[in-house]
Amino acid sequence: MSVGQLSAEERQKMIAEAAYFRAQRRGVDGGDAVADWVEAESEINARLRKMEHSALIERLRERLAVAGENLRALRGKVSELGDRLCARRRGPPKG
Predict the structure, then answer these.
(1) Would you say residue 95 lies in a domain?
(2) Is residue 94 part of a domain?
(3) How many structural domains compose the chain?
(4) How far, CA to CA in Å, does 24 sit from each of 44, 46, 83?
(5) Greatest CA separation found in the chain?
(6) Residue 3 pLDDT more than 70?
(7) Is 61 a domain residue?
(8) Could you tell me the sign of the dihedral formed by the alpha carbons of 84, 87, 89, 93, in that order?
(9) Is residue 39 within 8 Å of residue 22, measured between CB atoms?
(10) C-alpha to C-alpha distance for 62 and 45, rounded to whole angstroms
(11) Using one digit for the tens of pLDDT, what is the confidence trace for 36-70?
């Protein structure tokens, strides 16, 4: 599943789990559950943005690779056409 396919429910579950682990790390008693939630939400949002960024970079790399292959093929065709044009301008060999 990609980040773009993450449902609101799944995102909420991730935040809830992160908030739970934050509360557990500091000791459940005497803490601020709202602060745990807000910090967890910020943490999860940052992780999701990083994942989206990584996915975007990967797609760009794939598209650049294809574009490079297309460019190499096009350069080969242009070179071949240039060679043909030069041969036509020279005319048939005289002998």
Answers:
(1) no
(2) no
(3) 1
(4) 17, 21, 73
(5) 102
(6) no
(7) yes
(8) negative
(9) yes
(10) 26
(11) 999 999 999 999 999 999 999 999 999 999 999 99
